[in-house]
């Protein structure tokens, strides 16, 4: 028989016993993850690794804009584990790395390294709805190694994809929002830490990658580097840099079979994404230019360099083509002029930074069966497509209509074998679907948070491709318009396919005339000037509105019902002969 005390227990007795047990548990957990004092970041030591062989970490990306925090990782699908290493060039009293649904500091799954001024500690933790940090009762992050090197301090640990802990983030395919922070002061206990009171940031990463080995490259493969000529990155937040590159004269037709980024060391946190375009073969010459893509000095002929050869974004690895297809490079049907476009994101306005980043193309003269191509789906880069402020989930959809595919695709259709999704900071999800006969028949690609799992999708003549992007602007007080700036928005899917067609861009936006009717209606409803719509820019008109749930709902309804303007463009930047305005929509 269990012993049951015969004296009544008061509420304060129960509370005291509970707190005693909880405190004991916390001490045990902290002690089990305590790092040797010699391994303290401030003392420059290291602990012996618990692995018999070094852990290979093939994936890398910067966490902060300065590049002081670097993340490397690897994946074990048999063990369902993720191995992560954080490297800090200027470690003080600890760091925080975490995951949350949308990059929030609240209700986040955390791993924390901290010190109390004497000893260092490591533990699995979580933040509450106010950002206060607590040690998790279930410790799922396992410390593997700490090291102090001349390059800085590194912390290696691992965690299962799924832990069955309700406070832990489930690591799955798609974009993971990583939050990071540094501790400038020692803390006596983890309960003193509040994420809102330290320097933090957010980075997005595709942590899980396809578990398939890359195809082998042909023996006669050669490389070609298309890079900026050692420029000085402008001291502004957003820069698109254009550089014209010339192939060797009379280069025979080759196939690009793989490409990868070449980022100048130290600039990994500033080089946001890069693209290589081929100019129109109809142009016999293209002026040599290297400068801002927005400059008035940029030659107009660069606008005819729109055929995509390669597209890379921060965190992406090498891109391989299937063994029976390659992207044409050189030959009589191609241009020998290429345009490199580099997007620099420099929010700290770092000055004097040199850069010669670019893309390395692997090509072969042993031609494969099919010529591959890249097609751009989604929304046209225009401010007429905007997201109201303070929206939790606002959807915008770009159309590649049946009239465009009927005109531009071959009778046998095409095979999509890969896809690269892209939005800016407000993007929360992207989904491209194939619609046939008014019904969704295949998901081309979907990333609910953002997936790296590609499958073959085969659009045919008359099919519709819908690309739907979801945005969150709860932290913004002004509308977010479409455009190239990092605080503006995009909705893009670069689909890789074969056999190649002349269809380069299949995107849409709302008919601007109907947007002006929206401005007129809302201004009249809000008692404003109804005659100023045509005189101000679209961006200014959006900013001048008083935003509430009504104006946002009406805009959403407009985007879902109004006629659209189609951009059904050839690689020469010319339009296919289809109707400019399509008023038929696919309802799913």
TrEMBL record:
Its cofactor is Cu(2+). SMART domains: DoH. Pathway: Catecholamine biosynthesis; (R)-noradrenaline biosynthesis; (R)-noradrenaline from dopamine: step 1/1. It is a single-pass type II membrane protein. It catalyses: dopamine + 2 L-ascorbate + O2 = (R)-noradrenaline + 2 monodehydro-L-ascorbate radical + H2O. It is found in: Cytoplasmic vesicle, Secretory vesicle, Chromaffin granule lumen; Cytoplasmic vesicle, Secretory vesicle, Chromaffin granule membrane. Catalyzes the hydroxylation of dopamine to noradrenaline (also known as norepinephrine), and is thus vital for regulation of these neurotransmitters. This is Dopamine beta-hydroxylase. It comes from Oncorhynchus mykiss (Rainbow trout). The gene is dbh.
């Amino acid at each position: 028989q269990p012993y049951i005390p015969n004296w009544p227990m008061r509420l304060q007795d129960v509370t005291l016993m509970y707190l005693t047990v909880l405190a004991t548990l916390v001490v045990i957990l902290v002690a089990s993850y305590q790092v040797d004092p010699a391994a303290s970041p401030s003392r420059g030591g290291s602990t012996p690794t618990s692995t018999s062989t070094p852990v290979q970490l093939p994936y890398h990306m910067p966490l902060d804009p300065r590049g002081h925090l670097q993340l490397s990782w690897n994946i074990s699908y048999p063990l369902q584990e993720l191995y992560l290493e954080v490297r800090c060039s200027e470690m003080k009293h600890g760091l925080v790395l975490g995951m949350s649904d949308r990059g929030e500091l609240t209700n986040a799954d955390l791993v924390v390294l901290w010190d109390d001024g004497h000893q260092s500690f490591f533990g699995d933790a979580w933040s509450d709805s106010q950002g206060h940090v607590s040690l998790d009762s279930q410790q799922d992050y396992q410390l593997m190694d700490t090291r102090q090197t001349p390059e800085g301090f590194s912390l290696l640990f691992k965690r299962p994809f799924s832990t069955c802990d309700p406070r832990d983030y489930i690591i799955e395919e798609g974009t993971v929002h990583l939050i990071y922070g540094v501790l400038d002061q020692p803390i006596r206990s983890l309960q003193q830490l509040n994420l809102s009171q330290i320097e933090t940031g957010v980075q997005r990463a595709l942590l899980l990658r396809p578990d398939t080995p890359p195809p082998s490259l042909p023996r006669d493969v050669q490389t070609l580097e298309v890079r900026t000529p050692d420029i000085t990155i402008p001291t502004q937040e957003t820069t698109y840099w254009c550089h014209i590159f010339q192939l060797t004269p009379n280069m025979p037709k080759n196939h690009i079979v793989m490409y990868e980024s070449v980022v100048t060391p130290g600039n990994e946190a500033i080089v946001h994404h890069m693209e290589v375009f081929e100019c129109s073969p109809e142009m016999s010459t293209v002026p040599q230019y290297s400068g801002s893509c927005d400059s008035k000095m940029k030659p107009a002929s660069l606008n005819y360099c729109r055929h995509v050869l390669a597209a890379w974004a921060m965190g992406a690895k090498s891109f391989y083509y299937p063994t029976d297809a390659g992207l044409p490079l050189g030959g009589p049907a191609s241009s020998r002029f290429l345009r490199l476009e580099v997007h620099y994101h420099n929010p700290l306005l770092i000055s004097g930074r040199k850069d010669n980043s670019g893309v390395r193309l692997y090509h072969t003269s042993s031609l494969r069966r099919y010529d591959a191509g890249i097609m751009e789906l989604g929304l046209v880069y225009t401010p007429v497509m905007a997201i109201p402020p303070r929206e939790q989930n606002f959807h915008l959809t770009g159309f590649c209509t049946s009239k465009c595919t009927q005109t531009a695709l071959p009778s046998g259709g095409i095979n999509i074998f890969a896809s690269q999704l892209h939005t800016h900071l407000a993007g929360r999800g992207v989904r491209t679907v194939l619609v046939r006969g008014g019904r969704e028949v295949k998901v081309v690609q979907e990333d609910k948070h953002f997936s790296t799992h590609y499958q073959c999708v085969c659009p045919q003549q008359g099919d519709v491709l819908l690309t739907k992007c979801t945005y969150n602007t709860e932290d913004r007080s002004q509308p977010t318009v479409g455009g190239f700036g990092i605080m503006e928005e995009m909705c893009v899917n670069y689909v890789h396919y074969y056999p190649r067609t002349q269809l380069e861009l299949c995107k849409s936006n709302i008919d601007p005339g109907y947007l002006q009717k929206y401005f007129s209606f809302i201004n009249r409803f809000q008692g404003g000037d109804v005659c100023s719509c045509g005189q101000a820019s679209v961006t200014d008109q959006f900013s001048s509105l008083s935003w509430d749930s009504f104006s946002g709902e009406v805009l959403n309804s407009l985007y879902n019902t109004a006629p659209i303007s189609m951009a059904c463009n050839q690689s020469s930047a010319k339009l296919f002969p289809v109707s400019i305005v399509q008023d038929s929509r696919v309802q799913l």
